[in-house]
Amino acid sequence: MSSxxxxxxxxxxxxPATARRFRYWQLRTLIAxxxxxxxxxxxxxxxxxxxxxxEADLGITKAALGGFLxxxxxxxxxxxxxxxxxxxxxxxxxxxxxxxxxSVGANVFFGFSSTVLLLGVAxxxxxxxxxxxxxPVCRLMTHWFHPKKLATYMSIWNTSHSIGAAVAxxxxxxxxxxxFGWRWCFFAPAMLCTAAGAIxxxxxxxxxxxxxxPEIVVEGMGETHNEDKTTSEYRAFVGKQVFRNRYIWLxxxxxxxxxxxxxxxxxxxxxxxxELKGFSIMDAGIGVGAFEISGIVGMxxxxxxxxxxxxxxxxxxxxxxxxxxxxAMLVFWKLAATPLTAGLCLAAAGFFIYGxxxxxxxxxxxxxTKRAAATAAGLTGFFGYASTTVSGWGLGMVVDRFGWHIGFxxxxxxxxxxxxxxxxxxxxxxxxxxxxxx
Length: 438
Hints:
By secondary structure, the chain is an all-alpha fold. It has 17 helices and no strands.
């Protein structure tokens, strides 16, 4: 995949010096967005590794812990949608850094809390401010990369999810293993992310025009980076390209099931590996880390394959990815009996599930065009995080009553429904730029 190692300049740039500057800022923006979003995961996916010790230390039930996950996820989903509309109008440099610093504060509050009420309030606050991370990145990527290459480069950026979650998971597992206590799963990441916020502020900028470079010109879409987004014409455009687009709604429904499987592993992975499979917390950390690390490879291949073989039609790639993810979860549920086999199954599940996880937002952004990319991605994100009603509180209730085997059977069935949603979205075009100009 050597063809994806460097960004490509807009086709309208003829001056070599300007082209070099554009490539530099594309690469800098890509690296900064990856670094910043990975940092968000340090103060977001730390709870799952603290939960077993919190349950023992504070006497909190799985249903209550699942409630934290559900409330966090629901608020995050709403926040991604609301902040998606705001992010289309805001400078991502300030927007993203503000969200990260507010999440740091919520983590410190959580670490000092001990009652269910205060813990729940802290994690709900964190859920909302975490929704300030993805929308500005979506705006950045659609302004800095041409739609014909967006699946490739946004998939590269999307590895930040897995990098952040894997490193954060291993870091928090080490904290628990060393006996520092579950509270340091929140204090230590907060310290690291404070420094990360300062670095992100230095590295990020807004659109190409903000650094004196020409905007990317897309056939069928005029110059829109300075347009007034409070007009009735713009609202009508968003209504047509986003809210009345049947393929974006199919992607929203599919995202519900993609995130359900993903969160089942990320949020409950350490617990299920410890209780259902009988593994140590370090083995659980390695298993969840394998899920994330293989996801990096999977999403890169999925993004490249979408541009290379499917002409940018992400829904088609997702059909094959979901079939693989459901199969891997089924094998994990029925056959995995050792840390090695469980780790391999989780690695396979991560490899396949992170393709759709990355491509749904990319596909929605392309269908909505860069004028409404963050809004469309925010809408799909809302449905993705609405899945926490099932993967969080719902799964916790099922497991409390019926055990992990019944819970996993339900997850496999949900994955099959998600596959059907992608099959229905198969006819979707690669982007909406031609439609947007009609």
